[in-house]
Fold:
Amino acid sequence: MHNKSITDLAEGLRSGEFSSVELTQAFLDRIKRHSSLNCYITVTEDLALQEAKAADDRIAKGDATLLTGIPIAQKDIFCTQGVKTTCGSKMLDNFIAPYNATVVEKFNQAGSVMLGKLNMDEFAMGSSNETSYYGSVRNPWDLNAIPGGSSGGSAAAVAAGLAVCATGTDTGGSIRQPASHCGITGLKPTYGRVSRYGMIAYASSLDQGGPMTHSAEDAAIMLQVMAGFDERDSTSVDLPVPDYRSGLNNSVEGLKIGLPKEFFGDGLSSDVAAVIEAAVNEYRKLGAHIKEVSMPNLKLAIPAYYVIAPAECSANLSRFDGVRYGYRCASPVDLTDLYTRSRGEGFGKEVKRRILMGTYALSAGYYDAYYIKAQKVRRLISEDFKKALSEVDVIMGPVAPSTAFGIGEKIGNPIEMYLSDIYTIAINLAGLPAMSLPVGIVGGKPVGLQIIGNYFAEDRLLNVAHQYQQVTDWHQQSPKGFE
Amino acid sequence: MSLTTDDVKKIAHLARLGIDESDIESYAKDLSRMLDLMTQMSELNTDDVIPMAHPMDQVQRLRPDTVTERDNREQFQAIAPQVEAGLYLVPKVIE
Structure:
């Protein structure tokens, strides 16, 4: 049951082939059996079984949605009322939110079952899932490799069949990159499409929640629930939400695909490049037209991101001061001591590094040279995308320069780690939607294809991904030992 | 551009962020390398470019200035780390 699609499971629940309680119990058993993957920070077993019972009642009454009774899991960045929300940090190890994030509330209303809270890089800062206070998640395809970050727990859980689907968040590639490394489908929607209310903020102008699933069709079902205007989020965009499943079967004949030459230069593994070219070729066979496009300012995306994101992080994380909630140091001697020791003892090294960088970039004398400069570069990168997307329907390229690297391999070299997000970061700066879908395996590890679309064109992205998944089976493959 | 250990101490103070003495050297090295990366941006002339703080160039949406909050006092008191006689207890910092 653990590798079936949402629609297949919904059908099984309606036909009485199995109940939500049975389905939920099967996933809870798998979570226990594969606990060494370290995907979950908190497993909400009792709550899940209660929700499953309620879902079974709802299905019996005939007012179920497609997600009613389906076991899903939430990245531990989304606040959950009455359940610990840690954001992967010692700082919030004791935090129980008094409210639900809008995304969580929407899944509750749909009747889905929450299995628990998924491991992640601390405050979503990381590209490998090695910065969590709760330890690294292992990649089910290679237990010595990273699952990718920061939504590594979400990606590994879906890949290993420890949840039907999961939520993730993407600030610089944190949905797409782990989706690529774990062989699942991940969608970062347009900035503002999914509410950020109750999603613990890292970099407010970049963060966006999205679905992590086996297939594009499942992603469409999840996004249908997640998307929409939220009055409580001032960055939420008030636009109608289309029916994401209705266009999945549209033909891609005549689709114009742009390949940025800058995505295929030095630094890209030749094995990964070959897999991406083969995937693009599948689209060619389906009748798509391929065109080279250019992103001249793309190389500056990483420097711009590593000014903007830390600057916003230093402001957002200033609320963690040991006074109101979260970790508090023992016996502070004065207010400064309370702040500095609570923050110093509560945050991990990567978070501290980014707070320091952001504080420096925003400090008097450096604000114009770094922060304003980065915001200007951001506009140029955004204009590069707008120009390219005026010539083509979608842009394609790799998600990451290589397959998943080894645990511990890059953790001592932050700059090298940052460069692993080279193909994803620019999309967040521009606020565009993009997704990763599995398109091959190199050396036993999955490779993801990135598809970037125009603003609020998630339906088009899902259609393009779904059409590929109709003629290939990469999205149906499971890692050995997790079949 | 390279940062000294004193620079790191100064930034940490601005951020009210305690860092171990033994880590300062490595933070100085990492931050210096990050700044080197950032200097790549200076190669680009951006004199006429308007900074972009929001990906859709949106301005902050405002709501009518009316009270919308519900009274959650009892719920918040129930989950606060320490309360006494209806008050929240926080560390004493002023003698």
The CA atoms of residues 390 and 476 of chain A lie 34 Å apart. The mean pLDDT of chain A is 96.
